[in-house]
UniProtKB/TrEMBL annotation:
PANTHER family: 39S RIBOSOMAL PROTEIN L12, LARGE RIBOSOMAL SUBUNIT PROTEIN BL12M
Transmembrane segments: 6-23
Species assigned in the record: Corticicoccus populi
Pfam families in the record: Ribosomal_L12 (PF00542)
Record's protein name: Ribosomal protein L7/L12
Entry annotated with the keyword Transmembrane: yes
GO cellular component: ribosome
Chain ranges of the Large ribosomal subunit protein bL12 C-terminal domain: 48-76, 99-127
Keyword flag Amino-acid biosynthesis: no
Database matches in SUPFAM superfamilies: ClpS-like
Domain of life: Bacteria
InterPro entries: Ribosomal_bL12, Ribosomal_bL12_C, Ribosomal_bL12_C/ClpS-like
Record key words, sorted: Membrane, Ribonucleoprotein, Ribosomal protein, Transmembrane, Transmembrane helix
C-alpha cells in the first residue's frame, strides 16, 4: 500500500510540474499602444469590415478587454461628431485654464479619442507643457 501511495504521489507531482512548466513557457506578448492601432482601425472601418473582426484585432494588438475594445471601435465608427486634434487641444487648454480637475480632463480626452488612461494623461501633460 505504501508503494502505491508513493507512485500516485510521484505521478501527481509530475503532472503538476508539467503544468507549471507549460505556464511559464507562455511568451509575454508586447502590446501596441491604442494610438498606433487607430489608423488601421479607421482604415478597416472605412472598408466596411465586420466590427467583430475589428474588435478582435484591437484586443489582440492592444491587450484591451472586450468592453474597452468595443467602445474604441464604436467611438471610431461614431457619427462624425468627434473633435479634431485642434478642437481637442483647445478644449483641454480651456478646461485647464478654468481649473477643471485633471481627472475630468483625462476622462474628456479618453471619451473623445478612445485613448487609454496613460496615453490620455500624457496628452493632457503635453498640452499643459505648451501653456
Amino acid at each position: 500500500m505504501t508503494l502505491e501511495f508513493i507512485l500516485i504521489l510521484l505521478v501527481i507531482i509530475m503532472i503538476i510540474s508539467f503544468i507549471l512548466a507549460k505556464i511559464k513557457k507562455r511568451p509575454k506578448q508586447d502590446f501596441r499602444s491604442v494610438d498606433s492601432v487607430l489608423p488601421e482601425v479607421r482604415e478597416r472601418l472605412n472598408s466596411d469590415e465586420d466590427s467583430v473582426k475589428i474588435i478582435k484585432y484591437v484586443r489582440e494588438e492592444t491587450g484591451l478587454g472586450l468592453i474597452d475594445a468595443k467602445a474604441l471601435v464604436d467611438r471610431e465608427k461614431g457619427d462624425g461628431t468627434r473633435m479634431d486634434d485642434k478642437e481637442l487641444a483647445d478644449s483641454v487648454d480651456a478646461m485647464l485654464l478654468e481649473g477643471e480637475s485633471e481627472i475630468k480632463i483625462i476622462k474628456h480626452v479618453r471619451t473623445e479619442t478612445g485613448l487609454g488612461l496613460k496615453d490620455a494623461k500624457d496628452y493632457v501633460d503635453e498640452v499643459k507643457n505648451k501653456q
